[in-house]
């Protein structure tokens, strides 16, 4: 600040000061490197949740490429992997042809996972729902047997069940992804499980907002009425997670009407993405055009990532990001010895 006790006529003018610091007009900008690069990873992990249950209550028939039985589930997964997805989320809940097939929960998981492996040579991260079954052993079957490597878990189930499921995953060298539908669940995940030190770092999160619901839905996901609501809600949840773990691995589901817009917002923030017809049916939020398949969503995510200067991660690159060791080339069951 000037010494205003002096004669103001002796103080330099604005122009004198600007000339002294070599002020540039807007048409003479400084070198572009004056702006440092943003902290955004080059790779983006894109996984796919290929269940076709999102269209089960549509008035029209589901598109042929939606996963509505064992064979179409397996083929949709294989096609998504071949299109670039580094992982597949396996959840056959809401698919009558699988749930009412007469096979047990363990048999269904074994049939689907082995079926995928038989049809593709590409490596993929196995992510499985651990809510199915009549007892705890059936619940955690995919992760306890090494068939799956990761599992999502919403943080408002009975605490002793969550603690035990997390312990099983950790003992097998796997990871639990906290499934987050609102900021309240971020606090629950930290308070009820994460803060107890059961799971290895980094903490892993999967944000599922914008999912369709009505008065009969047992879990409500935040409604995203427009792009601003989408951006604000996502940023708010991510901020709450970063306050707990600045190095957290965060994945965002392309869900509901927001769909690909939500995936794009996630990529802009340097996050990772899960796509697929388990969570989304429409191609665009402002039109009623149905997606053709989960593969379409993977291909669109890949194209968007490339436009944004990012590339799709391999399965091993995703494992590295979530603190797991690379998979052995001949390891078909992912035993504990193959992981850290």
| Helix content range | 25-40%
Number of discrete helical segments: 12
Overall radius of gyration: 24 Å
Strands of the widest sheet, in order across it, are 4-3-2-9-8-7-6-5
Mean pLDDT: 91
Outline the secondary-structure elements.
Layout: H1 14-20, E1 43-44, E2 46-49, H2 70-83, E3 87-90, H3 96-99, H4 105-119, E4 125-128, H5 136-139, H6 141-144, E5 150-153, H7 159-171, E6 175-180, H8 183-192, E7 204-207, H9 227-244, E8 249-253, H10 259-268, E9 272-275, H11 294-307, E10 311-312, H12 315-321
Parallel strand pairs: 1-10, 2-3, 2-9, 3-4, 5-6, 6-7, 7-8, 8-9
Q: Summary?
A:
The chain is of the alpha/beta class and 340 residues long.
Structural commentary:
With 340 residues, the chain is of the alpha/beta class. Helix content is 35%, strand content 11%. It is built from 12 helices and 10 strands. The chain is elongated and about 95 Å long. The model is unreliable at 332-340 (pLDDT under 50).
Properties at a glance:
disordered C terminus; eight-stranded parallel sheet; alpha/beta; 12 helices
């Amino acid at each position: 600040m000037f010494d205003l006790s002096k004669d103001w006529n002796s103080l330099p003018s604005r122009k004198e000061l600007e000339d002294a610091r070599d002020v540039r007009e807007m048409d003479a900008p400084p070198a572009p490197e004056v702006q440092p690069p943003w902290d955004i990873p080059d790779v983006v992990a894109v996984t796919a949740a290929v269940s076709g249950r999102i269209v089960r209550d549509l008035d029209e028939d589901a598109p042929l490429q939606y996963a509505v039985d064992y064979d179409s589930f397996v083929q949709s997964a294989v096609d998504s992997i071949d299109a670039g997805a580094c992982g597949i989320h396996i959840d056959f809940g809401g698919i009558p042809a699988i749930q009412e097939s007469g096979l047990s929960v363990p048999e269904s998981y074994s049939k689907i996972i082995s079926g995928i492996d038989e049809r593709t040579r590409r490596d993929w991260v196995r992510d499985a729902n651990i809510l199915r079954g009549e007892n705890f052993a059936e619940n955690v079957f995919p992760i306890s047997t090494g068939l799956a490597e990761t599992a999502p878990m919403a943080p408002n189930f009975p605490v002793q069940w969550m603690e035990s499921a997390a312990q099983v995953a950790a003992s097998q060298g796997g990871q639990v992804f906290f499934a987050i539908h609102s900021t309240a669940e971020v606090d629950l995940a930290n308070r009820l499980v994460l803060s107890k030190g059961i799971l290895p770092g980094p903490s892993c999160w999967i944000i599922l907002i914008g999912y369709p619901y009505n008065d009969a839905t047992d879990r409500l996901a935040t409604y995203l009425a427009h792009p601003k609501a989408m951006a604000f809600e996502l940023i708010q949840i991510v901020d709450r997670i970063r306050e707990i773990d600045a190095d957290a691995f965060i994945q965002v589901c392309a869900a509901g009407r927001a769909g690909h817009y939500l995936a794009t917002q996630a990529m802009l923030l340097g996050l990772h993405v899960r796509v697929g017809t388990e969570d989304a049916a429409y191609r665009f939020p402002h039109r009623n055009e149905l997606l053709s398949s989960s593969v379409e969503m993977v291909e669109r995510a890949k194209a968007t990532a490339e436009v944004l200067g990012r590339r799709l991660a391999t399965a091993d690159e995703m494992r590295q990001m979530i603190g797991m060791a690379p998979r052995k080339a001949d390891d078909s069951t992912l035993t504990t010895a193959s992981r850290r």
